[in-house]
Design a protein that fits this description.
Layout: E1 32-34, H1 36-44, E2 48-52, H2 56-62, E3 69-70, E4 74-75, E5 80-81, H3 85-92, E6 98-102, H4 108-118, E7 123-126
Parallel strand pairs: 1-7, 2-3, 2-6, 6-7
Antiparallel strand pairs: 4-5
Length: 156
């Protein structure tokens, strides 16, 4: 990306941004959990790579973050493990940069962050994911997530 899309996400449309959203939460097996707001801040500052571990189908149908790295953890259909995940992850995360793992709701990205840590990469799970948790009608997008927080995304 040539320039930051939002200079300070807590001041520029990041929904419900709170000071605690700029803190790393401890985790087991990887560097920690971060809010979408903190992930965006690190990514825009050039400190981290944003790795979208959702399937190609999810990114195509639901939306994606422009400039993020598309690297599926599991592949559609069938949700088989991506045999090239390790190789491709090592190729896209430069030494000294953090890896921010983003999935739909922040669950698959935990597994991806753990694997990245095993590969020697400082990896974080992006809490809430792209779409957030399901609401009482089983719809996503109204209970947290990258999109809900007002961060940049597109849909084809």
């Amino acid at each position: 990306m040539d320039k930051p899309l939002i200079q300070d996400p807590s001041d520029a449309g990041a929904k419900d941004a709170q000071p605690e959203m700029l803190q790393v939460q401890p985790a087991s097996g990887y560097a920690g959990d971060v809010s979408p707001v903190l992930a965006f801040k690190w990514w825009q500052a050039g400190e981290a790579m944003l790795i979208d571990v959702r399937t190609d189908a999810e990114r195509e149908w639901v939306g994606f973050v422009p400039g993020s790295v598309a690297l599926a953890w599991k592949q559609w259909p069938g949700m088989a493990m991506n045999p090239l995940f390790d190789q491709n992850l090592k190729a896209v995360v430069p030494a000294g940069k953090k890896a921010l793992m983003l999935c739909r709701s922040g669950v698959r990205s935990i597994a991806a962050a753990r694997r990245a840590a095993e590969l020697g990469i400082e990896a974080y799970n992006v809490l809430e994911g792209f779409e957030g948790d399901a609401d009482t009608q089983a719809h996503r997008g109204s209970k947290g997530g990258w999109r809900y927080r007002g961060l940049p995304w597109r849909q084809n």
